[in-house]
Amino acid sequence: MNKLFNHKKIGILGGGQLGRMLLQKAMDFALEVYVLDPDKSAPCKSITSNIVNGDFKNYEDVYHFGKKLDLITIEIENVNVEALKKLQQEGKEVYPQPEIIEMIQDKGLQKIFYQTHGIPTADFFLVENKQQIEKYLDYLPFFQKTRKGGYDGKGVRKIVAKQHLSNAFDEPCVLERMVDVAKEISVIVARNVAGEIQTFPLVESVFNPQAHLVDFLICPASVSKKIQEEAENLARKIAEQLNLVGLLAIEYFLTKDGKLLVNEMAPRVHNSGHHTIEACVTSQFEQHWRSILNLPLGDTSLVRPAVMVNLLGSEGFEGEAHYVGIEQILKYSGVYPHLYGKKKVKAYRKMGHITVTDKTLSSAMQKARKIKELIKVTAL
After folding, report:
1. What CATH architecture is 181-379?
2. Which of 88, 136, 173, 265 has its CA at 20 to 30 Å from residue 364's CA atom?
3. What HEC string does 218-237 produce?
4. Which secondary-structure segment (H or E) carries 217?
């Protein structure tokens, strides 16, 4: 890529679909970007030759990758933080900062952060092993979440009664008391080096009950103006308390009695912001580059209502990916497919997403449900 206004060599840890979409936007800014990923057929591979085969969880791989660069960022938080700290000490720019990544890698540290800074969250207890759970049986029911490594519904167990302890994780965990959830909503906040902050419009998630993954993501979320302002203000507060540089996705529970509780955070571009490519003035991917390069943040206004359809591998299929129904969905106006280029499919693997836009949210939702019926990812 040609160097125009920016002369930094930039590295992304992770070459998955988020890295791929970051690269697509980086091309518009003529950025010189390199990618580290252990998978030789990672989604980024098909759109850049600047991909280094290595493990982003390995100290040596991350350190040697970063030594040749000026700025390092991430598309996945499960990376080697110690290597990033060393690179930062040696004068490399690392955004989001290693200490933020380290805190968010540990759900227990996340909860302590919320508690320390007066951020509303569900009541919780921290335990080191299965045996310690017995001390909290009077507080049942709760969800048990592993402190590290869990994502997309993995690392979570529901414990309603004492007999469920036999299936509990025997490792450091968070016990989170169950709350009566009306909706799950998310907001993405961006903050640049200068401290400028922007939030994206709130979105509402509809989950697949089998896979515990998002089926539909709806924007704007159907919430009151009060809840919208509260969610945005909390996001700004968190970004400022963290001294964040980059993007932060914040997932909330909205309880049936109207309380807003922070569930979890991710310090990167996020599934809950994919629709912004077509639906907002500035996409989350462009905003990420603006943030870490200390450029003015872009306008996050919603141009048109949107529904994002998560394109998951169909149940019962495993092998070389085959997309069924592309021709049918492209007959509809306002339908934008994004295929991630993953060669292999298996049940519920994220293979792509489709953004559906329309003049009204109800018409976009109606169209999205039809699209969901028409398109499938199977195996050849």
Report:
1. 2-Layer Sandwich (3.30)
2. 265
3. EECCCCCHHHHHHHHHHHHH
4. strand 214-219
Tokens representing 287 are: 């905003």
* CA dihedral of 220, 226, 228, 229, whole degrees rounded to 10: 140
CATH class of 123-177: alpha beta
Domain boundary assignment for the chain? 9-94, 123-177, 181-379
Cα separation, 91 vs 43, in Å, equals 30
- Beta-bridged to residue 200, according to DSSP, are none
Based on the number of CB atoms within 10 Å of its own CB, is 312 exposed (0-12), middle (13-18) or buried (19 or more)? buried
Consecutive H or E run containing 199 = strand 197-199
pTM of the predicted model over 0.85? yes
Neighbours of 162 (CB within 10 A): 11
Tens digits of residue pLDDT in 273-299: 999 999 999 999 999 999 999 999 999
